[in-house]
Amino acid sequence: MKLVAGNSNRPLAEAISSYLNVPLAKAQVRRFADMEVFVEIQENVRGEDVFVIQSTSFPTNDHLMELLIITDALRRASARRITAVIPYFGYARQDRKPGPRTPISAKLVSNLISHAGVDRVLTLDLHAGQIQGFFDIPTDNLFSAPILARDIKERLDGGNRMVVSPDVGGVVRARALAKRIDAQLAIVDKRRERPGESEVMNIIGDVEGRSCILVDDIVDSGGTLVNAAEALLANGAREVYAYITHGVLSGGAVARIANSKLKELVITDSIMPTEAVKVAHNIRVIGIAQLMGEAIGRTATESSVSSLFD
Ligand code: R5P
């Protein structure tokens, strides 16, 4: 087995490498003066089972091109099998046509990855499970729920917990976590009653006096979370936490979270945390190296990956 890392999340790749006790393969992934990506795999990979670790996170297009070009280099170097390990799959939110003459970019990106020569994909908490079907190659979508559930159980009082979906679209994900930690479920229902009027947040469920745990796949601008936290507190919640898999945290998101009423935002390291994230007083990062490493090991030995979620 060989592990190759792109530049998107080197610390995670190193943590996976130490979990598996397999060193990262020597490779150069760098830029020419005009910013074209250049890749050179500096050791023999002929006949090897190769795992390329690369989140397609910000700057998304650069990291996607790195993944494609690394794959091309490996294919031309006669790797036996190439698995793209994509802890955060960028473009996933563009998984349908929101209107006429718009793209389905998640499908286009899936095509690019397959056509570059990837044989399998290993990813985590896809924005929508159906994106697996955009690939005509085996695609394993891992869940961070067991890791998040363990953390919640260790930190928050059992009897008072309530899992909250910040929008109606996230109910299935939130319900799955609520079941794992034996908590009730509430839903933030955002509605614009009339065009031009501001959105009204209705809370479905009684959150009075509860420790609410907002659950989502992505925190990007932070707007969804901050608004949901305010609505929950206005409805009598005692405190609000958020457990989100992918900390995209674009623009002023970290400051928005830091200045919000959220007691704590917990994210995973599927995307490499910035310095601002690391020093934020109410953001904590939990590691997924063990989960990703275990899934890589099981893929290499052709053993069950689904049993990781039991
Ligand atoms: C959307 O469907 C996702 O699940 C997240 O709710 C969304 O990406 C969060 O975005 P933001 O943090 O910008 O409100």
UniProtKB/TrEMBL annotation:
The keyword Cytoplasm applies. Pathway: Metabolic intermediate biosynthesis; 5-phospho-alpha-D-ribose 1-diphosphate biosynthesis; 5-phospho-alpha-D-ribose 1-diphosphate from D-ribose 5-phosphate (route I): step 1/1. GO terms for biological process: 5-phosphoribose 1-diphosphate biosynthetic process; purine nucleotide biosynthetic process; ribonucleoside monophosphate biosynthetic process. Homohexamer. Pfam families: Pribosyl_synth, Pribosyltran_N. ATP binds at D34, M35, E36, R93, Q94. Gene3D superfamilies: 3.40.50.2020. Belongs to the ribose-phosphate pyrophosphokinase family. Class I subfamily. Binds 2 Mg(2+) ions per subunit. InterPro entries: PRib_PP_synth_CS, Pribosyltran_N, PRTase-like, PRTase_dom, Rib-P_diPkinase, Rib-P_diPkinase_bac. Mg(2+) binds at H127, D167. CDD domains: PRTases_typeI. GO terms for molecular function: ATP binding; kinase activity; magnesium ion binding; ribose phosphate diphosphokinase activity. It is found in: Cytoplasm. This is Ribose-phosphate pyrophosphokinase. D-ribose 5-phosphate binds at R192, D216, D220, S221, G222, G223, T224. Its EC number is 2.7.6.1. GO terms for cellular component: cytoplasm; ribose phosphate diphosphokinase complex.
